[in-house]
């Protein structure tokens, strides 16, 4: 059974630590880092990031999270790539953002929050989640400045390590099949 994620205010009160988001973060900062206009995902900290922090990310996947037993929807979830950071969109801003965000496109985001990840079934192993809502500013990047951001990121597991993940609910473990 899925549980509702804690609100941004519950997760971030009094916390101010810096957490690396992914082992891929250092190599995927792109051309914007030298300009100082965008914050790499690996440098985000817990709490609310107003106009002072902007990130440039590619939307790899978008889906609606719901409880399969009750059908209750918890809002949008996205997998972002700059370093494989998962983010969630809170219900108040979901309708606007659901129609604004497109898989594969690059966006500049500001006015968002950062909280700790949930304990179960995460799509990536980083420790933080971006929370977006009605106040979040989303601008599509139409120039080629985001061309260095890949569409997907992967965290492979050695085949011999798969049995040890059998009852591990912290991360999703997928399968790949060839022809």
UniProtKB/TrEMBL annotation:
InterPro entries: NA-bd_OB-fold (IPR012340), RFA1B/D_OB_1st (IPR003871). Gene3D superfamilies: Nucleic acid-binding proteins. Residues 9-22 have a biased composition (Polar residues). Coiled coil: none annotated. It holds the Pfam family DUF223. Residues 38-140 form the Replication protein A 70 kDa DNA-binding subunit B/D first OB fold domain. Residues 1-34 are annotated as: Disordered. This is Replication protein A 70 kDa DNA-binding subunit B/D first OB fold domain-containing protein. It comes from Miscanthus lutarioriparius.
């Amino acid at each position: 059974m899925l549980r509702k994620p804690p609100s941004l205010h519950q997760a971030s009160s009094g916390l101010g630590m810096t957490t690396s988001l992914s082992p891929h973060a250092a190599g995927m900062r792109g051309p914007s880092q030298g300009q100082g206009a965008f914050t790499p995902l690996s440098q985000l900290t817990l709490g609310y990031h107003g106009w002072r922090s902007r990130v440039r990310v590619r939307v790899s996947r978008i889906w609606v999270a719901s409880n399969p037993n009750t059908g209750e929807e918890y809002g949008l979830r996205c997998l972002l790539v700059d370093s494989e950071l998962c983010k969630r969109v809170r219900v108040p801003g979901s309708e606007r953002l659901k129609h604004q965000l497109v898989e594969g496109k690059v966006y500049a985001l500001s006015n968002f929050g950062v909280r700790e990840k949930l304990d179960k079934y995460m799509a990536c192993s980083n420790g933080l989640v971006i929370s977006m809502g009605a106040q979040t500013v989303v601008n599509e990047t139409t120039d080629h400045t985001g061309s260095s951001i890949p569409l997907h990121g992967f965290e492979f597991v050695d085949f011999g390590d798969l049995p040890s993940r059998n009852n591990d609910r912290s991360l999703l473990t997928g399968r790949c099949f060839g022809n």
